[in-house]
């Protein structure tokens, strides 16, 4: 094999885990290649994986566009702003989303060039002897090798037999980002993070949205008080959330989708214009490694790794959605950096207990650490402080007082164990809480920290004070 095909590190996958890992490897002086197969609408190579191309970024672009539309439609009267003749141009909105994606994915290509990362477009497959087979979109095959290999191929939407995706009328999360007009009646199977975000986009733009969730508990990973407030707000916005609703069959005829589902009250049938299937994601391990180079998987199909993210094959690592833990882009990126440093000979650490979670609906939901229900079930005695945004001067000025901040601390040590936020800009506010948990801060630490006035972040300060019944701008109970 020529020196041109031999690398210190080969990364398979160019998403937020893979491309970050490749850049960090190159920064450390390692000769690095990244193999990625993603192709955009124009059949061109596009780095960034699901997150940048058809996930995190485009969905947030549409959420932002739909938020502006909703504000103009319903939210500015109290500011004295009157709008008439308002309409939505969906194709222009989709183009704006695509332009944002194009700029960011092109930016990764620029970063690869700046860091001297060699990029290969094609499907990567791990062979024996730490070799990687690359199959192009024209079925040309080449082979490269490396001393270390990082698997970072991410995940894909789960398919369900009862609702086969055709990406015309029954779509997955990718198809839901590319509607050419607002559906009159939209169904979403799954009321999790992705289902709620996509349902919110089209609900704001005028769709009559029904979410069919098979579980009986709404957002079970979220603190129960926050989840209850979220459900109340979403229903107030017009989202029809049906819990314990199991879809048994979805069929398409004459551009309509007929959905049959069962719940506690019996069998039901609804007719929709579009149906989004959003029931979770599964790791992309199909055809990722050859039979002569097997990688051990767990019972759910995730790749087994040790404490340094090494698989059952020496010097072969796996990160992101392929392995344990939450399927989050920022988690994948941190693992990418960590593995690059492991390969270089360092001893990095990731604190999996303080990874923030965000749902980018309106209101936003963000949390870090433990929930009250989990701590109580574990027998841990806690103190709790809450502060509503209705008592925040900045929230009043914004015209959005929905939600609250909730802080949970250890009853004996006062160490903060969890912070949960529902409200405007929760995705930004949670960063302070993440830092607090990373440094094992107490509620007293937050209470003694001066926060600018008037800001939304004062709600964290007040919630910390409320833990010990010291809140200044609400009555202490």
- Unreliably modeled segments: none
- Sheet-strand content, in percent, reads 25-35%
Largest sheet: 7 strands, mixed
Overall helicity: 25-40%
Which quaternary structure do these chains form?
single chain
Mean pLDDT equals 96
Radius of gyration: 24 Å
| Net shape | globular
Number of strands: 22
Q: Number of DSSP helices?
A: 12
Cα(first) to Cα(last) distance is 73 Å
Q: Report the structural category.
A: alpha/beta
Question: What's a quick, concise take on this entry?
Answer:
The protein is α/β, with parallel strands linked by helices and 477 residues long.
Walk me through the topology.
Layout: E1 6-12, H1 18-27, E2 32-36, H2 49-54, H3 56-75, H4 90-115, E3 118-121, E4 123-127, E5 131-135, E6 141-151, E7 155-157, E8 170-171, E9 185-189, H5 193-204, E10 208-213, H6 224-237, E11 240-243, E12 246-253, E13 256-263, E14 266-272, E15 274-277, E16 281-283, E17 316-318, H7 329-344, E18 357-359, E19 364-369, H8 372-377, E20 382-388, H9 393-398, E21 404-410, E22 416-423, H10 426-438, H11 443-447, H12 458-467
Parallel strand pairs: 1-2, 1-6, 2-3, 6-17, 8-15, 9-10, 9-15, 10-11
Antiparallel strand pairs: 4-5, 5-6, 7-16, 12-13, 13-14, 18-19, 19-22, 20-21, 21-22
Helix pairs in contact: 1-4, 1-7, 3-4, 3-5
